[in-house]
Design goal:
The chain is α/β, with parallel strands linked by helices. Helices cover 44% and strands 17% of the residues. It folds into two domains: 8-132, P-loop containing nucleotide triphosphate hydrolases (Rossmann fold); 138-371, no CATH class. The chain starts with 7 loop residues before the first helix and ends with a helix.
C-alpha cells in the first residue's frame, strides 16, 4: 500500500530536538500512527514506539520517577507515545522527561484535544510544539492522482470524505462504522456524556444545517436540551475534531451580521454517514452544501498544514447578502464564493465599498484545482 506523505511531516521534523515536546492531535483513524512511524524510519537505531493503548505501556509511564523512566527507555533519543492521553498524569511524566533528559525527543499523539490538552497544558507551558493532523487534503492526494484524475474523483470525495481508510482502500462500507464507533469513542470515554442519544441528535441536526447560519436556541428546541448544553456539546465536538465553527466577519459596518455562526464538518464522509445519506452527487438535493463544506475545509486544512495562522469567517448582511468564506491574514483579506456549477457571482456592493482591497475568488467544479 502506498504511503502518502503528510504535509505536516516536514514541519514536525523541523521541530525535533529543540528541547520541546512535540504533540500531534487528530481524530482516530486519520493516520497519526502511520505518520509517526514514517518519522521513526529516519531514526532506525535511536528511536522507540510505544502504543499507550497497551496496559503494560501505560503502567511503565504512570507516576514513575525520572530514574525509572530512563531505565525503561534506555539510550533511545526519539520516543513516540501514541495515544498518550491514556497515561495517567501524562503531563507530569512529559515534564520530567524534558526537564531531566533534554537530549531525548518525545512525540506524543492524542485522538482528541480535550483529554491530552487538559493534561499537559499547565505542566508543559512553554515546553511544547503542537500540530493537528486532519484527513487527507487534495494537495496531499496529488501524490496518488493527477489533476484530471482528481477532477474525476471529486464527487466521490464530496460524498465519502478523505479519511485514509476510505481514500486508499476504497473501503466505503467502513465509513458508517468509522462515523459511529470512532467519532464517539473518546467523547463518551472522557467527557462523561450522560445522554448519548441527545449528542447524536445534535450531530444530525448540525449535519443537516451545514452551510447555514445556526442558532443555539433553535438547536436546543430541536434536540430537546437547553442552550448551555448545546454550547457545551458543540465545544466537545470541536475538540474531538468532528466539527468547527465560523463566526461572522465584521468591521462594525452597518447591516453586517455579527451574532450567528456556521458549523462545518472536518470530513464530508462523516457528515453524510451521520445522516445516512451516501447517495451520489447526481441524486442529492444538498450538493451546494456539500461543496461549501468540502471547499471550506480544504482551504482551512491547507492553512493548518502549512503552519499559517490565518483567521476564517463567513460574511452576511441582515438583508441576506453574503459571501461563503473570508480568509484574513492580518494583512490581506480573501473572499471566496463556492458554486458547484459554473455560475456568475457579483460581490455585494456594500462589501466591495468597505473592503476595496479584498481579493475575490469564485470556485466551482471546473476551476477548484487551480486554488487547492
Amino acid at each position: 500500500m502506498k504511503i502518502i506523505k503528510r504535509t505536516i511531516q516536514k514541519n514536525i521534523e523541523n521541530s525535533l530536538f529543540k528541547h520541546k515536546i512535540v504533540i500531534i492531535y487528530g481524530p482516530r483513524q486519520v493516520g497519526k500512527t502511520t505518520l509517526v512511524k514514517e518519522i521513526l524510519k529516519k531514526f532506525p537505531k535511536n528511536s522507540m514506539y510505544f502504543n499507550c493503548d497497551e496496559p503494560d505501556i501505560r503502567e511503565a509511564f504512570t507516576e514513575k520517577t525520572s530514574t525509572e523512566i530512563k531505565a525503561f527507555i534506555g539510550n533511545k533519543k526519539l520516543i513516540i507515545l501514541d495515544e498518550a492521553q491514556r497515561i495517567k498524569n501524562i503531563g507530569l511524566t512529559l515534564k520530567l522527561i524534558i526537564d531531566n533528559f533534554p537530549k531525548i525527543q518525545v512525540i506524543a499523539t492524542g485522538s482528541s484535544s480535550f483529554e491530552l490538552s487538559n493534561k499537559i497544558s499547565e505542566p508543559l507551558t512553554g515546553r511544547k510544539y503542537e500540530f493537528i493532523l486532519h484527513p487527507f487534503s487534495l494537495d496531499e492526494l496529488k501524490q496518488l492522482y493527477n489533476d484530471i484524475e482528481i477532477k474525476r474523483l471529486i464527487e466521490r470525495f464530496m460524498v465519502f470524505g478523505m479519511y485514509p481508510e476510505i481514500v486508499i482502500k476504497g473501503n466505503e462500507k467502513e465509513l458508517k462504522s468509522l462515523a459511529q464507533s470512532y467519532v464517539y469513542k473518546d467523547i463518551f470515554e472522557f467527557q462523561n456524556i450522560k445522554n448519548p442519544e441527545v449528542l447524536q441528535k445534535l450531530l444530525q441536526a448540525l449535519a443537516l444545517q451545514v452551510g447555514n447560519e445556526v442558532s443555539y436556541n433553535e438547536l436546543a428546541g430541536l434536540v430537546g436540551i437547553d442552550k448551555n448544553t448545546v454550547s457545551n456539546y458543540i465545544q466537545i465536538l470541536e475538540k474531538a475534531f468532528i466539527i468547527y465553527r465560523l463566526t461572522p466577519f465584521s468591521r462594525n459596518i452597518r447591516n453586517e451580521l455579527k451574532k450567528l455562526r456556521k458549523i462545518y464538518f472536518y470530513d464530508n464522509g462523516i457528515r453524510n454517514a451521520l445522516i445516512n445519506n451516501l447517495n451520489p452527487v447526481s441524486l442529492r438535493s444538498d450538493v451546494g452544501n456539500l461543496w461549501e463544506n468540502f471547499l471550506t475545509t480544504e482551504i482551512i486544512k491547507k492553512n493548518v498544514n502549512n503552519e499559517k495562522d490565518n483567521k476564517f469567517y463567513f460574511w452576511r448582511t441582515t438583508n441576506g447578502q453574503g459571501i461563503d468564506l473570508i480568509e484574513d491574514s492580518g494583512e490581506k483579506i480573501k473572499a471566496y464564493e463556492f458554486k458547484w456549477k459554473k455560475e456568475s457571482f457579483r460581490l455585494p456592493k456594500i462589501f466591495s465599498e468597505n473592503y476595496p482591497n479584498a481579493e475575490f475568488k469564485l470556485i466551482n467544479k471546473e476551476n477548484f484545482a487551480d486554488f487547492l
